[in-house]
Design a protein that fits this description.
mainly beta; about 120 residues; 14 strands
């Protein structure tokens, strides 16, 4: 699958999330301005690394080769199209895509009914 979850901050992956192949999720990022150095082997006094948690709430799906940057929250039921660059919070049960990712349309909440059925099935076993 070759997905990458990298960084100094937390990356929270909730139940029923789908992270497709070649997805990269970063909870930290270097400063590319040139005012600081950008190498993990350099002492921190010479770098400026931005660190912020990434949260994937329940039922998030991230399409192949997408990139999620530090500080992003993908609310419940968010779908991210393939090859997208996500830099900001995405609202619940919406579809986003592009570079940078932008809202495309609302997404059905019907999958929540299947979650409840699945829980009932699991509890009966």
């Amino acid at each position: 699958i070759n997905a990458s979850l990298i960084g100094a901050g937390k990356i929270v992956v909730s139940d029923y999330c789908n992270i497709s192949s070649r997805v990269s999720i970063y909870s930290s990022n270097d400063d590319y301005s040139g005012y600081f150095m950008t190498n993990p082997m350099i002492p921190t006094e010479f770098t400026s690394v931005y660190v912020d948690d990434v949260i994937l709430e329940k039922h998030v799906i991230i399409g192949s080769s997408s990139i999620i940057l530090p500080g992003v929250v993908l609310e419940e039921g968010v779908a991210i199209g393939a090859l997208s660059l996500v830099k900001e919070r995405c609202k619940s049960f919406c579809l986003y895509a592009g570079r940078p990712a932008r809202f495309l349309k609302k997404r059905s909440t019907n999958l929540l009914k299947f979650e409840e059925k699945l829980k009932l099935l699991q509890n009966s076993n």
